[in-house]
Write a structure and sequence with these properties.
Elements: H1 21-34, H2 42-55, E1 59-63, H3 66-77, E2 82-85, H4 91-99, E3 103-106, E4 129-133, H5 144-154, E5 157-161, E6 169-170, E7 173-174, E8 181-185, E9 198-202, H6 206-214, E10 219-221, E11 224-225, H7 236-246, H8 249-267, E12 273-275, E13 283-284, E14 290-294, H9 296-299, H10 303-312, H11 341-349, E15 350-353, H12 361-378
Parallel strand pairs: 2-3, 2-4, 4-5, 5-8
Antiparallel strand pairs: 1-9, 6-7, 6-13, 8-9, 10-11, 12-14, 14-15
Helix pairs in contact: 1-7, 2-7, 3-4, 3-6, 8-12
The chain binds ligand T4K.
Ligand T4K binds next to helix 3 and helix 4.
Length: 379
């Protein structure tokens, strides 16, 4: 009864960017000459330097993936106690806190940008609070200036989960120049990737030594193990992919902007749909995700119905992020007592639509036309 248009082939929420094959092979050819493919090789060193230049930050460490980078960042800060964070995130954020023996304390999110609501943080601070771990969710910057004020006032560390925020700038500076540490994910699904990969950005150069020890079993020399660590090193194939892809970041962000603008133009006037605001003067966005909130009453159909109908027509969206972290089975209700009205409402309504550089604007138009039809048929 909806008469939606079916795409000829499946379109997923994202599609990994693949650089020209020859560029990757010429980068890895060097590895065959020297037989050194991991443990701080030449490509790793080169990638680190290029990222420092690109991000215009002082210190960077590369790790095997974003999650272990986040855990390593927390361990570097040597914390014990409670960490205030957001429940509207990917599992990694909360698992990093828990795996480091810390207790997550959940703060509600802002109704417009879905990031931690800074006006509610101070109420959650007590004598056990040691840090704030906000997420720049979907790449939209958190209110970093207010978070800085709160952290200074209460002597708390700040570590940003910037998994979604590579390339984002606030007031002309990399978003990672805020807080004690920030983590970018370079996973294959991200706008800029190194197959798998994680980046830690930090101001204090003293962190470098500890990060290097943690990610390499605590080994500080051939006969010395200084601390208990693990293996979280980025290998040379990852670094090669990162080096090649770095050349395409700007082009890919521009393509994503075009797709975002098209979605916004075609969806913004439909009743019951809420979109992110991309018009802040002081922000350079990366357009990494395209989340839409569907209000079941005003739009006329629930988020789940929209997802199902689009799926039947080869359009595969995702509920980033549902359920809230507080509702994960693994926590067995341990975190059910937090007051999170906006996070809950957003998580119940959110659907992230497909976005990746090769997605054609024609396909975006079909997706939007289908969403319009669902609205028209449902009211
Ligand atoms: N913090 C936050 C806030 C995060 O969102 C993440 C990761 C992290 C921390 C941890 O960073 P990493 O340790 O991952 O570096 C995906 C990603 O795996 C994950 O990196 C990401 N967040 C999360 C939001 O999305 P899934 O479970 O949705 O991935 P999957 O395998 O279902 O892939 C999604 C779509 O991507 C597929 O439908 C098709 C496409 N795809 C996927 C892969 C793996 C490709 O086109 N090529 C591929 O190789 O988690």
């Amino acid at each position: 009864m909806y008469e939606l248009k079916r795409l000829d082939s499946p379109v997923n929420v994202t599609r990994t960017f693949m650089p020209p094959f020859s560029e990757f092979t010429s980068e890895i050819e060097r590895l065959w000459n020297n037989s050194w493919i991991t443990n701080n090789g030449v490509l790793h060193q080169e990638f680190e330097e290029k990222l420092i230049d690109y991000c215009e930050v002082e210190n960077i460490s590369l790790l095997v993936n974003g999650h272990l980078a986040l855990e390593t960042g927390l361990k570097t800060l040597d914390l014990k106690g409670e960490v205030i964070t957001t429940p509207f995130t990917f599992a990694s954020t909360i698992h990093a806190i828990v795996n480091c023996g810390l207790k997550p304390v959940f703060c509600d999110v802002d109704k417009d940008d879905y990031n931690i609501d800074v006006s509610k943080i101070e109420k959650l601070i007590n004598k056990n609070t040691v840090a704030i771990l906000p997420v720049h969710v979907f790449g939209t910057p958190c209110n970093v200036y207010e978070i800085e004020k709160i952290s200074k006032k209460h002597n708390l560390k700040v570590i940003y989960d910037a998994a979604h925020a590579f390339g984002v700038k606030l007031d002309g500076k990399s978003i990672a120049s805020h807080g004690d540490l920030s983590m970018f994910s370079l996973h294959a699904t991200k706008l800029f990737h190194s197959i798998e990969g994680g980046v830690l950005v930090y101001k204090d150069i003293n962190y470098k030594k500890k990060i290097n020890l943690l990610k390499n079993f605590g080994i500080s020399g051939p006969e010395s193990v200084e601390m208990v660590g693990y293996n979280a090193k980025m290998n040379e194939f990852q670094a090669a992919m990162g080096l090649v892809n770095l050349k395409y970041v700007e082009t890919n962000i521009n393509k994503r902007k075009l797709i975002t603008d098209t979605y916004v133009n075609l969806l913004q006037d439909i009743p019951g749909i809420q979109l992110l605001n991309y018009s802040s003067d002081n922000t350079e966005y990366n357009y990494s995700y395209f989340p839409v909130l569907f209000d079941p009453i005003l739009f006329g159909a629930s988020r789940d119905t929209v997802k199902e109908l689009l799926e039947k027509n080869n359009i595969f969206t995702r509920k980033y992020f549902f359920p809230l972290a507080t509702d994960y089975d693994c926590f067995q209700g341990e975190f059910s007592g937090f007051d999170l009205p906006y996070a809950k409402a957003i998580s119940d309504k959110v659907l992230t639509l497909p976005i990746y550089p090769e997605l054609s604007l024609k396909t975006v138009e079909i997706i939007c036309e289908n969403i319009k039809k669902i609205h028209r048929r449902s009211i």
